[in-house]
From TrEMBL:
EC primary class: lyase
The UniProt record lists the keyword Transcription: no
Protein name: Delta-aminolevulinic acid dehydratase
Xref: NCBIfam families: PRK09283.1
Length: 326
């Protein structure tokens, strides 16, 4: 056969050769593991819609953290599920709130672990929205003060990173100003800069007990049809003082991740959200997919799209699989 063509397969002949030329790599330190902490004692209750994800009381939290660290994962993000809720989310910014207590406990025992604090009101309000509600409307500006108070209380408890997820206009500016005024100018802000009003959040709302009691969140979270708006949101948050930019969800928004990465020279974070997790878990439990292969392909796709870090419920599994393959 006397024709000319390029032999790309030369670089695929063996596993070691493929590893030599691999362009994208996953490491356990790329992952941020979400943990849901609850009030009470001796509680480890599986979230019905998220197999393998649990509500954990503080007396069992250290055991979970020890496993996370043993797998090489260097960061967790803490979500609180309080027993008491009210219309202004008081437990979100109470110095003895569930996230604040969990943060103090983790940092006292595992000081090198990076603790990210989710900074929002929705799981602390009795109406389930991410801000103050009046006459059925979520009020932007009055909410900012509560978000700043929440961030300050979390920083006082020892949080290494503040991660505000509410999508109020000006939330990064308010939090940055509040942190700086309180003497926490060294604490970075990991902004949920690009957060879509997505159907993929359902299982998380089951886990965080944060389903809105009326309406939806489309007046403050982004329309999934919009692309240019993501860049405007990210630009605003950077100008207001964000140090990291989160894109949420991840799997259906890889184009947005790449756009944000191309435009901004800061660490980009993907949130591999609950619906993405639960779909794979359900399919794997039915024997329809190879869970390990599918998860690792998905996470590599996120890294290839441009993210530096991934918030994922698969963090422990993925770290374990990486270790086994090595």
């Amino acid at each position: 056969m006397n024709i000319q063509f390029t032999r790309h397969r030369r670089l695929r002949n063996s596993n070691n050769l493929r590893a030599m030329v691999r362009e994208t790599h996953l490491r356990p330190e790329d992952f941020i593991y979400p943990i849901f902490v609850v009030e009470g004692d001796n509680k480890k209750n599986e979230v019905p819609s998220m197999p393998g994800v649990y509500h954990l009381s503080l007396d069992l939290l250290n055991q979970e953290i020890e496993e996370v660290i043993s797998l090489g994962v260097k960061s967790v993000i803490l979500f609180g599920v309080p027993d008491e809720k009210d219309d202004v989310g008081t437990q979100a910014y109470h110095d003895n709130g569930i996230v604040q207590r969990a943060t103090r406990q983790v940092k006292e025992t595992f000081p090198e672990l990076v603790v990210v604090a989710d900074t929002c009101l929705c799981q602390y309000t009795d109406h389930g929205h991410c801000g103050i509600v009046e006459n059925g409307q979520v009020l932007n500006d009055p909410t900012l003060d509560l978000l700043a108070r929440t961030a300050i209380s979390q920083a006082k408890a020892g949080a290494d990173i503040i991660a505000p997820s509410n999508m109020m206009d000006g939330f990064v500016a308010a939090i940055r100003h509040g942190l700086d005024e309180a003497g926490f100018e060294h604490i970075p802000v990991m902004s949920y800069a690009v957060k879509y009003a997505s159907a993929f959040y359902g299982p998380f709302r089951d886990a965080a007990h944060s389903t809105p009691q009326f309406g939806d969140r489309k007046t403050y979270q982004m329309d999934p049809a919009n692309r240019d708006e993501a860049l405007r949101e990210a630009q605003s948050d950077l100008e207001e003082g964000a140090d990291f930019l989160i894109v949420k969800p991840a799997l259906s928004y890889l184009d947005i991740i790449r756009d944000v990465k191309n435009q901004f020279n800061v660490p980009i974070v993907a949130y591999n959200v609950s619906g993405e997790y639960s779909m794979i878990k359900a399919a794997a439990q039915n024997g329809w997919v190879d869970e390990k292969a599918l998860v690792m392909e998905m996470l590599v796709g996120m890294k290839r799209a441009g993210v530096d870090l991934i918030i994922t419920y698969f963090a422990k599994d993925a770290a374990r699989w990486i270790r086994e393959d090595q």
